[in-house]
Amino acid sequence: MATVGKNILDNLTTGMYSDSKVIYREYIQNACDQIDLAIKMGILAADEGYVDIFTDSKKRYISIKDNATGVKAKDFIEDVGDIANSKKEIGKNKGFRGIGRLCGLAYCKILKFTTSYLGENTKSIMTCDAQKMRAMLVENKKYTLDEIWDEIITYSTESEAEGEHYFEVEMFDINKENTDLLNETKVREYLSFVVPVPYKNTFILRNQIYNHAKLIGYKIDEYCVRVNGSQIFKEYTTKIKEQSGASLKNYDEITRLEFKDFRDSSGSLIAWMWVGLSRFEKQIPSVNHMRGLRVRSANIQLGDDDALQPLFKESRGNYYFVGEVFAVSRNLIPNSQRDYFNENETRVLFEDLLREYFFDVLHKIYYEANRVKNDYKRQEEYLGKVAEYQKKEKEHSFVNEEERQKLQFDIDKAKKIAEEARKRLDKLDTSDTSDTTSPLSEVRKSIGQKYGADKLTKKAEITTVVIDDDDKKKSFITSGMSKLSRSERKLVGKILSIITDIAPKDVAEEIIDKIKEEMR
Questions:
Q1: What is the pLDDT of residues 240-283, one digit of tens each?
Q2: Distance CA 481, CA 500 (A)
Q3: How many helices and strands (H and E) does the chain possess?
């Protein structure tokens, strides 16, 4: 018979994952499967299951414990000790390959599994010498998988109360290079978007998600997961933030959720999604950990926040959005690393359906949002130039006639651009009236509220007034410099003109204001 060498164990442990925090996902998904079974068996009520994670950075220790079925003593060695021989069903259970529990071997010295089944007075223990395993894997010597397994695994039992039922994973002496596993902040941040937990109750739009799931007959799996006693929630919010100095400030807001169901030719549901609608001011900055469209199977995230990025017309498109895609079809099977799906016909259909929606709807939304926003800004720029002209005229602060004419020219140019922008907005208004619930209509409304649509619709006009030379001169800065002679004012006017020509606008204004103070 063929021999299974040691490298397969290396591939299933140290070589399987690029992020050590996946151990939490693997052990939690196993716990959730058992919680489901415990509820089905009547061991737990629907809201009684939990997964408790405890970390101790000083002792470099991690415990992950659930209160589900546990494992019967007679089945313990087969169920826990076997490798890649799971009894779970593909498409039904969250974990099904029987390899996830091995992941902890890569990140600690000792990995320990302890369990007790309801009604039994025994707890079964499997202890793995992870440090020894890693040493054997790098030895210049051939080992079979069985040889290493027999060398590093020990089984034992202890007495336990018959009413206890649990499964606990313990990791002792976490590797120094994997200290992130003990960083509670990073662990909570990771779990909040990866594992199947409820939405945070401050996410006021969450009920829309639950209602849509109910409407299409889909159950969103959610569990109580706690880290050092504090429950984990999906950290979605309606506020979108950006870095402002040393702090964060809100710059955009999700005002509504849009839903899309993806079905095959027979009408069967393949997947469904929700996506947040905002003003789409810009790509959402990375300080917003919720950014990106995330793909989920059994409400467990696959890959990172960029798993669906290749399906967008532009790679940047993914980070304009916040949302989730829930895989429904049992033929959408997560791969062994759980960063995407196995390739098959259903995955191809899934990608085709999403790509079409991303191209035809989502791309158009953020592209049109940017155009609408720019059209409002063009009108703001026009009104700003008008206000600048009127202020200078009122305060007699034109440097010379050339500056006056230049500003008048800029106003005329900005006015034409603003009028073209207004026509586009009016056309969009007309097209939106047929469906005020459309995503684009919602985005247009949100942008208009920020940029003052009511004020910008007013036609701001400026009239060119013909005045004689003496009145024109009174509008210039030098006309108020009564201390200077006519020739001196003329010289100062030339100096001010030079300053205006070569200095940045804000610098020039500051210098000119100072000169005005000194010369009056």
A1: 999 988 899 999 999 999 999 999 999 999 999 999 999 999 99
A2: 18
A3: 15, 15
